[in-house]
Sequence to fold (354 residues):
Amino acid sequence: MTIYNFCAGPAMLPAAVMRKAQQEFCDYHGLGVSVMELSHRSADFMAVAEKAEQDLRELMAIPDNYAVLFMHGGARGQFSAIPMNLLGKGKALYLETGQWSVAASEEAQKYGDIDRVDLRCEQTTLDMSRMPDTKGYAYVHYCPNETVDGVALYQLPPTDAPLVADLSSCILGRELDVSRFALLYAGAQKNIGPAGLTLVIVRRDLLGKADPKCPAILNYQLAANNDSMYNTPPTFAWYLAGEVFQWLKQQGGVSAMAARNWAKASKLYDFIDASGFYRNPVAPSHRSEMNVTFQLNDAQLDQRFLAEAEAAGLKALKGHRLVGGMRASIYNAMPEAGIDALVQFMDEFARTYG
Ligand SMILES: Cc1ncc(COP(=O)(O)O)c(C=O)c1O
Fold:
């Protein structure tokens, strides 16, 4: 039976990448050791690290005046690092569109003067007319893809202030113009590779402004000065991320992935909307193409749905504990066949219990 893993993160990785990593696992390029046993400062690992950065720069068309940092601590680590590096004595604005942007703004409160604006309307849409005047803010933070809620903000928030975005669940799955941002960041465990690595893409003129109390491992300037090797980086995760970047290039890059992701998500949303058995309450213009949340009209069938899905090889469809219901996370690595299998299962389940 083919297994499809719909986990929100750590998420499935491309099968081709996993097979290559397996082949190289014990003996990397004939060195007789695993890539995870190499010194991060060895020429062999430095080549892995540099190639990964070059490929990412190419995939995202990252301009030269941006540093790419391979850091630790997950996206939550960045919830602290961002205010400590960018806030100075200024004030920041946090846009709240779902669980993760709220978590980011709550963490930022610890470090300085933070304004928050809640753009959510009954969790089904976002009201951009609530955006305040953003003049004078050190930065505006937002999350273009709310992994838990299945809510996306596809257009850029209207602001001239430096824009900071949490791309944890949409990086490399959606096209985006890096030059419009001051800083982008993402935990790796959805569209990049295994957990343990965090990517930060930051405009270089913003470096060197960190609070003196900022922990050294969260300091962007130190990370940039040391090629992300101020301390031992998560080398195996970095290597695997590099393999994912090469795979993405073979797939036609981000624009090709974005088209495929839209096709996959549309197929699933169209089925849900037409079913009469399942529903998705998010306004169509804010539906995420990465995390498709849905509920059964009869919540008493939830456990049965999950058990039968698991038995059919469709894993990890349970919604986040904070919102309940179901969630299918369908990042770059999820093939269209996984969506077909899910739709077929959901259809059969609805016919049986509807
Ligand atoms: C949008 C978003 N931000 C932040 C996080 C937290 O990431 P981490 O567990 O790497 O700290 C997640 C995790 O799922 C996420 O989806």
The chain is about 35% helix and 15% strand.
